[in-house]
Each structure stands twice: as structure tokens, then as C-alpha cells.
Amino acid sequence: MTTPLQAIRDLLNEDKRYRIEAYQFIRESLHYAHENNEATSAAMADVDPSPGISSENPNHVTGQQLCESCRRYAIDQYGYLAKMVLANWGIRSTSDLGELVYNLIRIEQMRKSETDRREDFDDVFDFDDAFEPQFELVARDED
After folding, report:
1. Mean per-residue pLDDT for 87-103?
2. Known InterPro entries for this protein (predicted)?
3. 32-84 pLDDT, tens per residue?
4. I need a surface site. Which of 3, 28, 43, 75 has the fewest CB within 10 A?
5. What is the DSSP string of the chain?
């Protein structure tokens, strides 16, 4: 029987696109998604979820929601360097996030629902824009 650690080692040898930190980041982002469910859902309000996912299991995180959690978690952890850190691990698009998730599913380190699809991770947001600092201008009262 293969241990989880051996399964990850084998995965890293099979798929050299991603570093082990990328897989750890996915796990941490999923945890972040569960901790911050309301914020993620509000941020994804303009994205149509896959039919029936949210209502059938309130603890389920869709591919789009996980992508948004990855974005928010990366910004929280790495600030302005988030995009560069993720790229160093091999993550350059939301499709990469899907590849990581489905690699973990394949080695039974994550689960998916019947309605989940690998394509749910494609083009969720543009990495070039997603990690840019957001500035807000505040009007001053002139006395």
C-alpha cells in the first residue's frame, strides 16, 4: 500500500511541472476557502456556479471558488510578490490550479463531486491582472 507521502513523491516524479509547494498551496487554499466561505461566495456572485453544487453540499467548494480562494490566499500570504511566488512553483494560470487539484484527486489526496470537472478551472481569471495591487482613491473634504 502506498503512503500519502510516497504518493506525493511519485506524483512529483511523474509531473515535473509543479513543485511540492504548489500542492501544499492548494491544500492551504482549500482550508482558506472553508474558513472564508462567505467572502469567497460574495466575490464569486457574478460567476454562474455549476448547477446544483452549492445546494447539494454546503461544504463543497467549486473549481471557481477554489481559484478565487487561491487568489485571495496568495495575496494574503505574499502580497505584491504573489504572482512571482506562484510562478516559481509552476502556477501561471487557473488551469494550473485545476491540474494540481486533479493530480491530487488522482492520487486520492482530494475528492471531487459527481458534477466537478477539470474544465471548471479554465480561464476563471487572468493571472496578469488578478494579483495587481488594488488602489482606491478617497476623496478628501476640503475645508
Report:
1. 97
2. Ver/Plancto_CHP
3. 999 887 554 444 444 444 333 344 566 789 999 999 999 999 999 999 899 99
4. 3
5. ---HHHHHHHHHHH-TTS-HHHHHHHHHHHHHHHHTHHHHHHHTTTSPPPTTHHHH-TT---HHHHHHHHHHHHHHHHGGGHHHHHHHTT--SHHHHHHHHHHHHHTTSS---TT--GGGGTTSS-HHHHTSPP----PPPP-
Distances (CA, A) of 51 to 20, 48, 57, 108, 116: 33, 8, 12, 25, 10
Which pTM was predicted? 0.80
Cell of 14: 511523474
Residues 6+ apart with CB under 8 A from 80: 131, 133
CB burial string 1-23: b at 16+ within 10 A, e below: eeeeeeebeebbeeeeebeeebb
